[in-house]
Design goal:
This protein is mainly beta. The chain is about 0% helix and about 55% strand. It has no helices and 13 strands. The strands form three sheets. Strands 2, 4, 5, 6, 9, 12 and 13 form a seven-stranded mixed sheet that branches. A hairpin with a 4-residue loop joins strand 7 and strand 8. It is globular.
Length: about 120
């Protein structure tokens, strides 16, 4: 069964950090670009970062640049999103997607999606 499963979300205080994971099963992430997206309550889903299949291309939305770090471990079939210096504006459900390629920080041709992991930033 093909699955992407996000984990690592939670409740964190402003300024805090989390490491989100996106683990694949039933297929290899090695041949896919991976995009991270988020959707805040009442807002549309937005892309925040993308990494190419080789890992050689890494891109971020300006508002998260310097605070978020995307990485991939193809041996573990997992992609990570380290999120630091969190603010309440980062509160959202975070999703990963296996895609064809990155167009800057937006992954294109998303064929598999995870179910999301909730990140809540609050004091």
């Amino acid at each position: 069964q093909v699955q992407l499963v996000e984990s690592g979300g939670g409740l964190v205080q402003p300024g805090g950090s989390l490491r989100l994971s996106c683990a694949a099963s039933g297929f290899s992430l090695n041949y896919h670009a991976i995009g991270w997206f988020r959707q805040a309550p009442g807002k549309e889903r937005e892309a925040v970062s993308c990494v190419t299949s080789s890992g050689g291309g890494i891109f971020y939305k300006n508002s998260v640049k310097g605070r978020f770090t995307i990485s991939r471990d193809n041996a573990k079939n997992t992609v990570y999103l380290q999120v630091n210096s969190l603010t309440p504006e980062d509160t959202a459900v975070y999703y990963c997607a296996a895609a064809a390629y990155c167009s800057n920080y937006v992954s294109i041709g998303n064929i598999y999606w995870g179910q999301g992991t909730q990140v809540t930033v609050s004091s």
